[in-house]
Design goal:
With 284 residues, this protein is of the alpha/beta class. The protein has two domains: 207 residues, Dipeptide transport protein (Rossmann fold, 3-Layer(aba) Sandwich), CATH 3.40.50.10780; 51 residues. It is built from six helices and twelve strands. Strands 3-2-1-4-7-8-9 form a seven-stranded mixed sheet, with helices on both faces. A five-stranded antiparallel sheet has the order 6-5-10-12-11. β5 and β6 form a beta hairpin. α2 packs parallel to α5. The radius of gyration is 20 Å and the shape is globular. The structure holds zinc ion (ZN).
Length: 284
């Protein structure tokens, strides 16, 4: 008995840390409101709306369950919807960590997550039948173009994660959002929790069915960590922001580095790469 115990004591600590492929897997989850099942009207997206809080929390916690079941060691959730006021430490999954507040243009990606995921995500501005489709700011931004291509939160954030070598592995949201991610990351796993009929009309799964789907797909996504590749945009980047008629360019836009004023409500931001252009735009 004594000998067997000694062998265990010697073997376990010696083998575990040296085993390759055993790096700690952390998933960074970006949440939003407009892509949550059952959320189809603008007033439902008020960040402290009790129903939104309940529905989003349920989806986030299902995703956390799935990622952990699929092999993730750590799940870090950023409350990314409208001022970071929707999620609460009181109701978030006990094993998740919650990030609250403005986290800057690089979204803490420099902390070296293994993978990024979206929960409650909507499609970019102007997408046909995208439920509450918009790019960052529904009242302030008409269109956003990255090297001439129309983009929204999904592509800019997926490409930013790619700049840090991090793949986006999962998205839950409406059908239009899932398509938008698949266009750039065909292997990403998606959970379509509702289908848009028009901007404010949808066919939605129940909260219970959406959570079951998200749990299952998130587990599948976590098991595919390592095979889903980061999405990268290489080379110089021009970001063009067309504001809405009720918005305007920032004061002094003409004099900031890398900026080019196109007209009263359009600006171009240049950078040697995406990180520089995005920092110049978002970090002003
Ligand atoms: Zn959004």
């Amino acid at each position: 008995m004594q000998m067997k115990t000694m062998w265990l004591v010697l073997l376990v600590p010696a083998v575990a840390p040296l085993c390759p492929g055993q790096a700690r897997k952390s998933v960074f989850v970006i949440t939003d409101g407009e892509g949550v099942a059952g959320i189809c009207r603008q007033e439902q997206t008020e960040p402290q709306d009790p129903e939104l809080r309940q529905l989003l929390t349920g989806e986030v916690n299902a995703a956390v369950d799935g990622f952990l079941a699929g092999g993730a060691d750590e799940v870090i959730v950023w409350d990314g919807h409208d001022g970071s006021r929707t999620l609460s430490a009181a109701t978030i999954h006990p094993k998740a960590k919650l990030v609250i507040g403005n986290i800057g243009p690089m979204m803490t990606l420099d902390r070296g997550y293994t993978a990024v995921a979206f929960v409650g995500q909507h499609s970019m501005a102007g997408v046909r039948a995208g439920i509450m489709a918009h790019s960052y700011n529904s009242l302030g931004i008409q269109n956003m173009l990255l090297n001439g291509k129309r983009v929204g939160e999904i592509e800019t954030r997926t490409a930013l994660a790619g700049s840090f070598g991090i793949p986006v592995i999962f998205l839950s949201g409406d059908r239009a959002a899932a398509r938008e991610l698949h266009d750039i990351v065909p292997d990403a796993v998606t959970a379509e929790v509702k289908e848009g009929l028009a901007r404010y009309s949808c066919i939605s799964l129940s909260a219970a069915a959406a959570r079951d789907l998200i749990r299952e797909k998130a587990a599948q996504a976590a098991r595919q960590i390592g095979s889903i590749k980061p999405y990268r945009i290489t080379g110089p980047v021009t970001l063009e922001i067309e504001y809405t008629t009720r918005n305007s360019l920032p004061i002094g836009a003409e004099t900031e580095p890398g900026r080019e004023v196109v007209d009263d409500r359009t600006i171009r931001v240049h950078g040697k790469d995406l990180v520089e252009a995005w920092t110049r735009y978002e970090g002003r």
